[in-house]
Each structure stands twice: as structure tokens, then as C-alpha cells.
Amino acid sequence: MQNSGEHQVPQTSHRARPYMLTGGRTVPAVELGLESRVATTGNVAPEKLNLEHAKAWQLCQYPTAVVEIAGKLGRPVAVTKILLADLIKAGAATTLAANLIEPSSSYDLLERVLRELKKL
Fold first, then answer.
1. Complete domains list, the chain, with CATH
2. Which band of pLDDT confidence, cut at 50, 70 and 90, is reported for residue 84?
3. Global pTM?
4. How far apart, in whole angstroms, are the C-alpha atoms of residue 78 and residue 33?
């Protein structure tokens, strides 16, 4: 039995501080936007990565947006960008062009959105 003066550590997993995951870095080595898609290259085995990088690598099996990876990791976007930039620099991942909408159709899309907003 514990006495009332002892501090009990919760049984949930400990979450590292963001600066611990990035080695104190605040700027990624590779420029990544929220919509940038990242995918693994197959050039680096995940066993050679540390735990946080391996988690990010696992989420990049298919081209995935940076913001989606951050959400699934439960980490701030800034931390996720640094982790992904590390993977890219190591050759474990690559970025793909974010082709969200075709430039020729962007005006048509905006017109449709405007019409739908006016209906509200």
C-alpha cells in the first residue's frame, strides 16, 4: 500500500516533448507545405530508424499529405515536418508534387463554390 505522500506515475505511455523528438530543431531541412505529399522510397529499412521516424515512415507507405501524417501521429505539424524532412534527407522518403486541382479548372471550381455558398 502506498502512503499518501508518494507520487504515483500514470500507467499511460509517456509522450516525449516536441523538442526532444527534433533534437531541439525548429526548422525542417526540407521545405514542406501542409499539402505536400510524402511517400517512402524503399531505400531504407524501417528497422534502421528510431521509433518516431519509423512511425512517420509507416504512415508514408502511400503518398500522404503532411497534415494527415501529423494528425495520425498526434504531433504538431512543425515536429512532423522535421521528422519527414529527416526521412527525405536520409533517402527513406520523397516528396511528390501536391496536385490538388488542375490550374485550368480552378476558376470553374471557385464559381461552383460561390454558387453553393450563395444558396446557403
1. 30-98 (1.10.10)
2. very high
3. 0.66
4. 10
pLDDT at 8 over 70: no
C-alpha cell at 104: 485550368
Tell me the pLDDT tens digit for each residue of 29-56.
Answer: 888 888 889 999 988 888 888 888 899 9
Q: At what angle do helices 66-73 and 51-58 cross, to 10 degrees?
A: 130
Residue ranges of E strands in 2-117: 37-40, 64-65, 93-96
Q: Is residue 22 over pLDDT 80?
A: no
Question: Could you tell me the CA-to-CA distances from 85 to 92, 102, 107 in Å, in that order?
Answer: 10, 27, 33
Q: How many residues does the chain have?
A: 120
Of 27, 80, 75, 74, which is closest to residue 57 (Cα–Cα)? 80
Return the beta strands (E) in the chain as ranges: 37-40, 64-65, 93-96
Locate 23 and state its grid cell.
533534437
